[in-house]
């Protein structure tokens, strides 16, 4: 039996376990939920998935997603 674990790594160094895979270059809400482009607004704290790293150990596959916080200028210029 193999366990699959998924983690978000925030710019501040905090780590949060999530329960599903997310695509690279996705925009996620602060709690790890993937946001659709039409649901973005300037009041939402958003992060961009910049890196995916896999670690395989005996019986456990861990995936770490490195996040970068999007500024209001980036949201307005590219996504809104």
Kindly summarize this structure in a few lines.
With about 80 residues, the protein is mostly beta strands. It has one helix spanning about 70-80, and strands spanning about 5-10, 15-20, 25-30, 45-55, 60-70. Helices cover about 10% and strands about 45% of the residues.
Q: How is this structure best described in words?
A:
The structure is a single chain. Helix content is 10%, strand content 45%. With 80 residues, the protein is mainly beta. It has a 5-stranded mixed β-sheet with strand order 2-1-5-4-3, with no helix packed on it. Strand 1 and strand 2 (15-18) form a beta hairpin. It is elongated, with a radius of gyration of 14 Å. The relative contact order is 0.28.
Distance between the termini: 43 Å
The structure class reads mainly beta
Order of strands side by side in the largest beta sheet? 2-1-5-4-3
Quaternary form: single chain
Biggest beta sheet attributes: 5 strands, mixed
Number of strand elements:
5
Proportion in β-strands? over 45%
Radius of gyration: 14 Å
Mean pLDDT: 90
Overall form: elongated
Poorly predicted residue ranges: none
Helix content: 10-25%
Order of helices and strands: EEEEEH
- Determine the number of helices (DSSP H or I, runs of at least 4 residues): 1
Keywords:
80 residues, mainly beta
Write the layout of secondary structure elements.
Layout: E1 3-9, E2 15-18, E3 27-29, E4 46-57, E5 60-69, H1 72-79
